Amino acid sequence: MKSSPRIVVLGSINMDLVVRCAELPIAGQTVLAESSTEFCGGKGANQAVAATAAGGSVSMIGAVGSDAFAGRLLGNLSQHNVSCDAVEQRRGQSSGLAVISVDQRGQNAIMVVSGANASVTRDDVMASKDLIERSDVILVQLEIPMDAVLAGIDIAKKAGVRVVLDPAPAPREFPSQLLAVDLLCPNESEAAVLTGQPVESVADARRAAAQLQQMGAEHVAITLGDQGTLLHRSGESHLIAAFSVNAVDTTAAGDAFAGALATRWSQTDDLYEAVRFANAAGALAASQHGAQASMADGEAIESLLQSQS
């Protein structure tokens, strides 16, 4: 097994404002919240921390602003051993901000202000071309501009570097080359948006995965919450079971899954085993509050795998 694969994460860096409440408000409703807390987050940064925790050697490509959050965001990534050499700091711009409401069951609703994340350009990515070409895998999401995402995918594909895409937030319209990746890992709602078909059951997920493969993805892993993950490869689908935990905050479960998956697949070259490992990582993240603070290390993930094997 490869001990410390080189992972590049191209994506967002945010400060998360987490508001806890008994029930999520509906349109037009005001609710009294129980507490508010600030955490370092952003899908890209979360996945970078998760990939590092799982055993990867991780570099981040992205941008922060020049506000009070910027230093905290960069310092936090560095503390988690994520290289920030390719993270730009934009003068006169604010860093990304996510407002996350979490109810007593651990379910969440998220609103994101992109800030400096929206300034990441194709040129920024091209400046890190060598970094991407030297990596084992690039992990990308969709909280930065599409041109930057496509540039990263293009560089990696030409260099023979694996591409893992977490298509969140899922776009209703997108260029066909976006899905031409080695591994696409949406959740149910994202798979539904990408295919234009509802994904409300395992059978729906099987159909969606086959369609997404026809749309360009080599492999597809659709996360289905407590039902597990539907892995579609080589024309066959496998439902890989979820792990039983006491979920208190699902905010970063998907990011924990993606980061751990990228690292483990690079380590073992066994996608089925990597998805199972990632399921465990996502479950452990859901059992803790916060985003990056909830990312489990490889030892904790292995312990859960063994306890529920």
TrEMBL record:
This protein's name: Ribokinase
Family named by the database record: Belongs to the carbohydrate kinase PfkB family. Ribokinase subfamily.
Cofactor(s) the protein needs: Mg(2+)
A Pfam family it matches: PfkB
Domain Carbohydrate kinase PfkB: 6-295
GO molecular function: ATP binding; metal ion binding; ribokinase activity
GO BP terms, alphabetized: D-ribose catabolic process
Function: Catalyzes the phosphorylation of ribose at O-5 in a reaction requiring ATP and magnesium. The resulting D-ribose-5-phosphate can then be used either for sythesis of nucleotides, histidine, and tryptophan, or as a component of the pentose phosphate pathway.
Activity control mechanisms: Activated by a monovalent cation that binds near, but not in, the active site. The most likely occupant of the site in vivo is potassium. Ion binding induces a conformational change that may alter substrate affinity.
Organism: Allorhodopirellula solitaria
Gene Ontology cellular component terms for the protein in this record: cytosol
Residues involved in K(+) binding: D249, T251, A285, Q288, G290, S294
Enzyme Commission number: 2.7.1.15
Domain of life: Bacteria
Subcellular location: Cytoplasm
Reaction(s) this enzyme catalyzes, per UniProt: D-ribose + ATP = D-ribose 5-phosphate + ADP + H(+)
Binding locations of substrate: N14, M15, D16, G42, K43, G44, A45, N46, E143, D255
Positions annotated as active site in the UniProt record: D255
Pathway field: Carbohydrate metabolism; D-ribose degradation; D-ribose 5-phosphate from beta-D-ribopyranose: step 2/2
Oligomer and partners: Homodimer.
Cofactor note: Requires a divalent cation, most likely magnesium in vivo, as an electrophilic catalyst to aid phosphoryl group transfer. It is the chelate of the metal and the nucleotide that is the actual substrate.
CDD domains according to UniProt: ribokinase
Gene3D superfamilies in UniProt: 3.40.1190.20
HAMAP family (UniProt xref): Ribokinase
Principal location listed in the UniProt entry: cytoplasm
Amino acids binding ATP: N187, T223, L224, G225, D226, Q227, G228, G254, D255, N279
Alphabetical UniProt keywords: ATP-binding, Carbohydrate metabolism, Cytoplasm, Kinase, Magnesium, Metal-binding, Nucleotide-binding, Potassium, Transferase
